[in-house]
Amino acid sequence: MIKTESYVQEAAGGMVYRLIPVTEEIIRCVIGKEEIREPESLIIEKKDYPEVVFEAEEKEGRLNVRTKKVLVSLNLSDGCVEWKHADGSKWCTQNKADLTKIDVVRYTTGGEKPIINRVKTVDGERNFIQNLKPEKVREGYRARVFFDWNEEEEIHGLGQAEEGIYNYRGHNQYLYQHNMRIPMPLFVSTEGYGILFDCCSLMTFNDEGRESYLFLDTVEQIDYYFMGGGSMDGIIRDYRYLTGKAQMLPKWAYGYIQSKEQYYTAKELEEIVRHYRELNVPLDCVVQDWNTWNPGNWGEKILDQSRYGDNKECMKRIHEMHAHTMVSVWPNMNAGGKNHQEFFDAGYLLYDYATYDAFNEKAREMYWKQAKEGLFDQGFDSWWCDSTEPFSGPDWGGAVKREPWERFLMVGGEHKKYLDPAVANAFALEHAKGIYENQRKDREDMRVLNLTRSGYASGQKYAAMLWSGDTCADWENLKIQIVEGLNMGLSGYPYWTLDIGAFFTVADKWQNRGCGCNTDPEPKWFWQGKYNEGVKDKGYCELYTRWLQMGTFLPMFRSHGTDTPREIWNFGEKGTMFYDAIEKFIKLRYHLMPYIYSLAGAVYFEDYTIMRSLLFDFPEDREARKVENEFMFGPSLLVCAVTEPMYYGPESMPVDREKTWRCYLPAGTDWYDYWSNEKYEGGQYVTVEAPIDRIPVFVKAGAVIPVADGLVYAQQEPKKPIQFMVYPGADGEFVLYEDEGNNYNFENGAYAITKLVWDDRAGRLNIGEREGSFPGMREAVYQTVIVK
């Protein structure tokens, strides 16, 4: 029979199941112990979903619900759920689920005066409350959802961790917020489906041993969405349909961003920009890290006037040089400051008496008011929301890294002390929401940009760019970072970046540490860079150069770290190997700007992913599945990162090896070496030249890539015609996207697209009519270049 209701509900296996077709390929499954509830979700968008026509019938002890694309079959005796294609071929099985009742507690001092232990850590100052007591607030559940996989099925996603696990089959992973950890409640399968859990508590994914399951720490019920998108792009499109479109970032955010720990005055920020302009090296943003506040007022959003009294004037001169700024803000504040006192008086602090309650709308408004008056109105353009986990506990210290389970309990426990355990992973999401929504209320003419160390599913709609945290400088970490970026893209989140060159460079020579720690001889498990002398060590200069070359092809291109300076002139002077290689790749980023900004448009309009695991574009290539150090940058460029030294080891020790790199070229297409234009057949490994001024980059046959020459900032009008670089060998197409670059008029249609279609047999590029317009749009001047 045809069901016209929006869902079907049945009791099965001692629990209640509700199946809700959201679209023809998305089915929501809710499992309750006694009843099904409809609580407010922090990650699923509230909107009017179109009614889906589906069939539902009970037959032979099973409830079958079928749309045009998905068949879900529920065993009414044991609650086993089979997820199938509409034709009956199986995707996967949720073979059981369990819910165990627990007491949900919060921690308070019970009316006693808090005993506060204020600790200065590498990761900022923290409050630890010594006399917190648990108090039951309600009953809830902990849950496990079990799955069966096909033998060769791979599981990816789950956000970003720090171990560099690409395929989670056979692994255990703890999903909690921490420096270098950004969990996402989503996994995708190489079988062509994904599952998104509407859960904001701590979680564990377990595929070790005989059972595979996802553990949910604190829930009212099990609530997940099966997404049968078929392809990785299709699954990601389903994810963003549920959680929200990824917002457009300002165009300048796709240029080069210079940062370090730290600059000390507004004038210094201005001089950094001026130096880049004098060198004619492109730059779009300079970043102000922590300690802009008066000494002792940690987290205060009020500038120290002795160092930043001329901030407005310096920012104005930076803007006149066509550059922008970003400023670090923290969610926690020292007692005694004006900002802290305002939150304390209003009752908007969590029970660490330092961190504001981002789950409270009024508290988010107060945070924005302080940030606007103290920083935004003083000329800063964008936000670096640091330490947004925001609780780390004693894990972020000591010489020995604790066991994974111990860290999960320790750090997760800190989150559950100060946050409702049902939303222990969601602080950064609500923090980003407050920044985005309140800035938009004040300034529709200025796009929000929030670089944040933690985040969660749906944060893409709040213009939150995630970065991977405080890594350390060695070649193995460079490899790990690539894997984590690929899994973040496979988690549906399009905006992810890292500290080019890693954050920590020093290991045992503690006298060279940054972050004000050069008098602390205690070893730190996370401070394990291999280069005690920083840029004075040619080994580090090589690692940094390779890291930057890979970073050229990330959604955000940003250099940052402590212990040693990061500006280009610290790596030599023009005519020397490292300087020239760095300059070459910064300029390459700007050469590709029309291509990159078009990809940004596709992220918003087409739910696209820029940094692409080979699983996106080559799902049938079994060899490509194994490749973890390569990725597609958009549809056309295959990036093969160099992750081993070729010139120097630590302490500038020469390395004797060939300057070549072995790359896998996915099957089903031909490839061009970007540097030499030599053509290769796909489906094979090739070894190519990889001197210090290049990493292997290949262009897919049929690619059409718009490029511009001579740019030193992203929104600069090219002095020469935009070139459409065509790589023959297959038909191809691309859509050039243009808009004003730094407002939200595009949401109302103020943008232009130009469709480019390459007819390989005819040897002709068909340039379509420019569709649409926007204020300030200039006449289009193009030139076609066919690569031979």
- What is the helix fraction of residues, given as a range? 10-25%
The overall pLDDT average reads 96
Number of strands: 42
What's the N-to-C terminus distance?
60 Å
List the total number of helices.
13
Taken as a percent bin, the fraction of beta residues is 25-35%
- List unreliable stretches of 5+ residues: none
- Computed over alpha carbons, the radius of gyration is 26 Å
Overall morphology: globular
Spatial strand sequence of the major β-sheet: 1-5-6-7-8-9-12-18-17-14
Main beta sheet: 10 strands, antiparallel
Oligomer: single chain
**Structural class assignment:** alpha+beta
Q: What report would you give on this structure?
A:
It is a single chain. With 788 residues, this protein is an alpha+beta fold. Helices cover 20% and strands 29% of the residues. The chain has 13 helices and 42 strands. A 10-stranded antiparallel beta sheet has the order 1-5-6-7-8-9-12-18-17-14, covered by helices on one side. The chain has an 8-stranded parallel beta sheet with strand order 26-25-24-23-22-21-20-27. A hairpin with a 3-residue loop joins strand 6 (62-66) and strand 7. Helix 2 (266-279) packs parallel to helix 4 (311-320).
